[in-house]
Amino acid sequence: MTTTINRVAVLGSGVMGAAIAAHLAGVGLEVELLDMVPPSLTEAEKAKGLTLNDPEVRLRIVRGGLDRALTAKPAAFYTRKAAERIRIGNFEDHLGRIADCHWIIEVIVENLEAKRALLERVEAHRRPGTIVSSNTSGVSIAQMAEGRSEEFQAHFLGTHFFNPPRYMKLLEIIPTAKTRPEVVDEMARFAARVLGKGVVVAKDTPNFIANRIGTYGLLATVQAMLEDGYTVEEVDAVFGPAMGRPKSAVFRTLDIVGIDTFVHVANNVRENVSSPEERAAFEVPSFITEMMKRGWIGEKAGRGIYKRVKTDGGREILVLDPATLEYRPRQKVEYPSLAQAKYASSPAQKVRALLFGRDRASALAWKVTKKTLLYAAAKIPEIADDIAAVDQAMRWGFNWEMGPFELWDLLGVPETVQRMRNEGETIAPLVEELLSRGYDRWYHREPGRTGRFTTSGEIRYTEEPEEYISLRALREQNKVVMENSGAALYDLGDGVACLAFQSPHHAIGPDVVEMMFKAADEVSKNWRGLVVGNQSRNFCVGANLFLILMAAQQEAWDEIERSVREFQQANMRLKYLDKPVVAAPYAMTLGGGAEVCFAASRVHASAETYMGLVEAGVGVIPGGGGTKEMLIRNIEGIPENSGVDLQPLVNRAFETIAMAKVSTSAAEAGEMGYLRIVDRLSVNADTLLYDAKRTVLQLADAGYRPPAPKKIPVVGEAGYAAMAVGAYIMRMAGYISEHDEKIARKLAWVLAGGNVPAGTAVSEQYLLDLEREAFLSLAGEPKTQERMAHMLKHNKPLRN
After folding, report:
1. How many angstroms separate the Cα of 127 from the Cα of each of 171, 179, 576?
2. Least buried of 177, 184, 258, 334, by fewest C-beta within 10 Å?
């Protein structure tokens, strides 16, 4: 079957329902968001004289859900404008709208009978062939569908989004025995390509894959803490980044998710498994039960395991003592194994340092890890047929750096199993089968394909999809064309090269700039085009601030001037290269990172791109061409000699740069002027390099020619005065500091074109010279150097 999904009905506007609707609207789908009619009037509605028949009342619940999504933090929508694609309604008056939808998602209360009742009503309106799914986190999919027609059940499945849906990559698809395989395949493709999800197919078992393994691991951790006398701080120190887990670790994660949610998930497993040992493993500790009674359920209640309190010095975070249920100041945790893990040079060294150490931190890490590994192996094939599904679920749903089987390979399967045997553990049958067949690892990787051990006892290889380009794999295949310490040029195939930054944090320094020139020369001679893209945490955090600060403190002004000028020239080289250049930014794309994108022929951005010119926060203005490009982007499209007043457009660029605005998405970057209407975005970050490569080839096939240099009209002295007055008013009103005003005046001078009459047309180089001069001038200011030092030390801007 091949159904184009353009319109989706989301039934239920609670936290998850409204957030799912927001994500669907954000990727361009039309959404019907429906919920129940309120059973009674509020006091405010009574005071207005409204009745239960008034539309304002009948839409109150669903409108409230949409309003909460619009104000959610982090933002549920890519831009507020996306909310225009959502039409609200209720189950009584508007359920008939689902007949025009291609996918219907049920997202109501986690109650089997309530879900069955709603699905019965859905079947009365749904067109045959329409896919229907439930977003349940644990209710049986098959039991939900009981009583529905065979045709309905053939198109019914579970689609479990993780919260928040926009940001969490995992989508668990749960078919029943009656779900048509082609429905599963279609939803998996759609979810990956259109929704940007990492899809795993799970079995219809309690809490599916990620919550089953994750909740087991959390409870095993808490149990080990109670048994062996560890503190909350010790647990979070061990099971945070040192173990390849998020900074929120164990207990901060519980507070964020909600202890009530965690207890619900744990109880759902315990009530639906038959093994006494497994039921015991999912028993919620008594102190958490008592917290539930007291309403201490986490961040949404103002207190959970952690609690923020006001003190004379500001705010302090207290931690709960599980033994006394009293809050106390946090204690610092120090163990040799944690220190070794912190300074390890690779993920493998980091985890091995922690797990194979000889202190209490290592003992805790090993005790919990071995139980989690054995449990994951024991649940195959109950919860999934594929070990990769388990690993992907934990990486995408719980933000682990490695899933349990990937971690096991890293630690060494034979060695760790022998240790487990020596400690009296029961080894899962799947593990025994692996070893009995002479294998010493779960995964077997070869160029272009990956094999994994299966329940049949064989290694099954799968080809890597061409859409998933891996720079690491290309390096292993000797596809690096040239490199230095700051960047490398890769061969992506089909005549397209990729310039990838590899400096710490992808900060731009002399080595990166050198490779920009070399890559431009190489591509001009031998390639069809260039992608500028990376594959690590962030695209680029900007210039190497440490080098700039050191040079400024040493008054090496010639060195700073040369570095800024060369970066400007490198960006101009890319902008006017005779081959297409496509930048592929994602995540943090700040300062110089944004300026590199501005130089590209096109930008193909990840939907989750946080772009901004943030230089004002460290006391300077964009000096690599960013100020010039923001001016161009704000006034381009205005016909020459049209008489249009450019000042409001220049003011927009001035405000964006001076306030160091950062977009919360690629779509918002477009609204802010960082991206152009011709630029594109990819919702699935895994396909970003592939998508950017395709854009390069499309430009090349169309006979790409670089842009012709143009003169830029400026607002001149009068325009500068208007912006300077605005900055002065802001300072006098107390909104900005004296140094902020100085930065703003320098910025205004560049954007206005300096000391020239309004309407003067200037060259790009003229503006670049003004940029560089302003940058150097501000870099010499003591307050700017204070800002730089503060940012390097605290990773936060200083407003002095």
Report:
1. 25, 17, 54
2. 177
